[in-house]
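Lab notes, practical 5.
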Amino acid sequence: VAYWPYPRAPEDGVRQFGRVSEMLAHYAATIGPYPYDKLALVESSTKFGGMENASAIFFDEKRIGGDGSLESLAAHEIAHQWFGDSVTQREWHDVWLSEGFATYFCNLFFEHADGREAFLVRMRNDRDDYLKAQQKAPQAVHDPSVIELPKLLGPFTYEKCAWVLHMLRGIMGDRAFFAAVRDYYSAYRDRNAATGELRVIMERHAGQPLDWFFRQWIFERGHPVFATRWTWADGKVAVDVEQKQQGPVFRVPTVIEVRGEAGAAHRENVVIDERTERFEVTSEERPAEVVIDPDEWVLKEITQ
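Output from the prediction step:
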């Protein structure tokens, strides 16, 4: 690992980049061996915050030398050495295979280094950025009608697709998900890949078809907007769930948690896949609260 700051303040860049060696070690253990002989972190005049050139990442000179940390930016660009540089999307409309992966694996580094709550804060911020973009101008991740490259780079291919990978992890479980990531990287290292090829590998490890998942999250627009109400009688909670978003109904494997007044909670695994449907959850006491997706695995909104 080499640092190439301008001569004016060489120590600033090294300090701001933070835990680079730890990032490299974590990604190598999680994904596969680092694909190049060296990593240079270079202060430069790039117009982007960071540019993930293979083995020589360029960082904007305007961001080096201040008090702010560049650790998050470094984690994102270093993740690109695996996803984007070594495994490169075959066509621009699959650019999420670079940017979604780099965004999520950046967050995963902070989950590893700083804990689950730090990770969830980052995921919530990504969700909020996506929701703002979706409200302003809805777009599918993979949309062949978009022919200007800059319009493919933004919250749909970065933040939303970090959530796509997060949801896959939630459906598959950590063991199967990360095994699939390692297989995907191994199969396409120094090659080009497409969304369909990632899907095939994920399906193999998930032990189930995932065409529905990729169709609704990559090739269609939007996300589920849930409205819920519940009643309690005879030791059971009837939970009515409605999907209120315009457009297609989503299929969402998730959890309903019934929380009691005394703090006890009971969970039920469910698959929400109708516009309106009812689920029943056993509860010996009247619930204080009923929560969909208590562990925050699903990209969604909750409304009345």
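Observations recorded by the TA: The two ends are 52 Å apart (CA to CA). The first strand starts at residue 2 and ends at 4.
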